[in-house]
Write a structure and sequence with these properties.
Elements lengths: L1 H5 L5 H24 L8 H25 L6 H12 L14 H29 L11 H7 L3 H25 L4 H12 L16 H16 L1 H8 L10 H18 L6 H12 L14 H13 L12 H19 L8 E2 L2 E2 L2 H27 L4 H12 L20 H16 L1 H33 L11
Antiparallel strand pairs: 1-2
Length: about 475
């Protein structure tokens, strides 16, 4: 509704359509909020299934809005655009020269909403509502309890921090001389790690000041809501005590140095692209696909590792990668000394074997999802290089990649089957593995229940058609 109101005077047809749909949704939501009571305690399976259903409904709603207003030509393109928006993936079919102000703002808002929901689920819903290590190997620890003492307070704090950070990004872009609409779109895309600009060359056509603001915003967004919380409270000294933050900074420094040693790649370009990939934002200031094999492999690894916990970005997550390396090193030492006691710690907290097993299972599922993505893109006609890059990039919610997608995330060079193959990959990477597996399990449960019900109805129909004769007194 707000996007429609903001678009009045630019394209009134889009503005009125979006405003009316938004008003109708607001009325339905207000009525539902009064009539629907949330359960006091929901099971883990139902929470995961609800998360999967939420993302699915959001994507379908956005697709219907794009297609219904004629913003995109076909429902297939609308579905891809909506999935890219809500999953904070920097691929698009929209063009700022053709799209109205309403559509551009709505595309940016979808990324912002997707990032907000991702943070709320990871920081509030799973740890607080389920009261377990529902993040598969990650416990919020002292910093989580500090930010989220309970669900209501945690939700309010996340909204304030996320909204305040977004407003700071928008103001910073305005100070660089950008118009209000562009500043809003870029601010929403930076805070959410959505990476949408509407421009065909991403940020390559903007000035150095705008690119510097984007780099700083991506760094903070990739670091996550916990770091923003620490900074907001003025607790700067404890920042460096975080193993995850130190690992995040170290990996960024290694990636920047490794790329900057190549001829033709400046330190500024290397730093921007390293932050863009590791924060899974997907902004680009140059066509990096021609930087050579070494640089592109470094960016692929950075995109696969991804962000810190509590960030709207995707990827394996830095802490999971660190703990997996520690667990692997412990197993190697145990091969030399079977009786050695190997402990894996996170910020001074010793992790149990069950937690480490969950970590390993999560990452195995992540790799399997990437492999399925490579297969889907390959059979849809995408090249081998494009399939590998596209799968990792989509599951990590980055977007751009080598091959058909390109450095700026434009999907015009990708065929219709390839575009549709990206949708389940983006949604799978955004939902994370547990909700995805729970959603698949729920669908299979409904399918089995429907099969049993249909068999029961067939048997009843046969019994009515050929009733058994009633026994007489002389029958046994």
């Amino acid at each position: 509704m707000l996007c429609g109101l903001a678009g009045i005077g630019d394209d009134n047809a889009d503005a009125v359509a979006f405003a009316c749909v938004g008003a109708a949704c607001a009325i339905v939501a207000a009525v539902a909020r009064r009539r629907v009571a949330a359960p006091a305690r929901a099971s883990a399976g139902r929470v995961f299934a609800g998360i999967g259903l939420l993302w699915t409904l959001l994507v379908l709603f956005g697709a219907a809005l794009y297609a219904g207003t004629g913003s995109l030509r076909s429902f297939d393109d609308a579905l891809v655009e909506s999935a890219a928006g809500f999953t904070t993936t920097a691929v698009t079919l929209l063009d700022a020269d053709e799209a109205s102000r309403t559509v551009l703002l709505f595309r940016g808002v979808t990324s912002w909403v997707g990032g907000l929901i991702a943070i709320l689920i990871a920081v509030v819903t799973l740890p607080v509502v389920l009261r377990s290590t529902a993040l598969i190997g990650y416990t919020t620890g002292r910093r989580g309890l500090d930010l989220v003492p309970n669900a209501s307070v945690g939700t309010r704090r996340v909204l304030v921090l996320y909204g305040g950070f977004t407003a700071a990004c928008v103001v910073a872009y305005l100070l660089t001389g950008l118009p209000l609409t562009e500043a809003l779109v870029l601010g929403l895309g930076t805070a959410s790690t959505g990476g949408f600009t509407g421009q065909a060359d991403s940020l390559a056509g903007y000035g150095a000041a705008t690119q510097a603001v984007a780099a700083a915003g991506m760094l903070v967004a990739g670091a996550g809501i916990f770091v923003i919380w620490w900074i907001a409270r003025g607790r700067l000294r404890p920042l460096w005590r975080s193993q995850e933050l130190r690992t995040f900074v170290l990996l960024l420094a290694v990636a920047i140095a490794a790329m900057a040693v190549h001829r033709g790649i400046g330190w500024g370009e290397a730093g921007f692209m390293a932050v863009s990939m590791m924060s899974t934002t997907g902004f680009a200031i140059a066509d990096w696909t021609g930087w050579g094999t070494s640089a592109t492999v470094i960016m692929l690894v950075a995109a696969g590792i991804g962000t810190m916990m509590g960030s709207p970005g995707g990827g394996m997550k830095v802490m999971r990668a660190r703990l997996l390396m520690g667990s692997a090193g412990g197993e190697l030492r145990r091969q030399l000394d079977p009786y050695a006691l190997i402990l894996v710690r996170r910020d001074g907290e010793t992790l149990s074997r069950r937690t480490l097993d969950r970590l390993g299972g999560h990452q195995i599922a992540w790799v399997v999802l990437v492999g399925i993505g490579v297969l889907l893109l390959g059979v849809s006609g995408v090249s081998l290089l494009g399939s590998v890059w596209g799968s990792v990039s989509a599951v990590s919610t980055v977007g751009p990649g080598m091959g058909e997608i390109g450095a700026f995330g434009r999907l015009e060079g990708l065929g219709r089957p390839g575009r549709l193959a990206l949708v389940p990959l983006m949604m799978g990477g955004r939902m994370s593995i547990p909700p995805l597996m729970a959603g698949v399990g729920l669908v299979l449960h409904w399918y089995r229940a429907a099969v049993r019900r249909s068999r029961f109805l067939v048997v009843r129909a046969e019994q009515r058609r050929h009733p058994r004769p009633e026994p007489t007194n002389g029958d046994g």
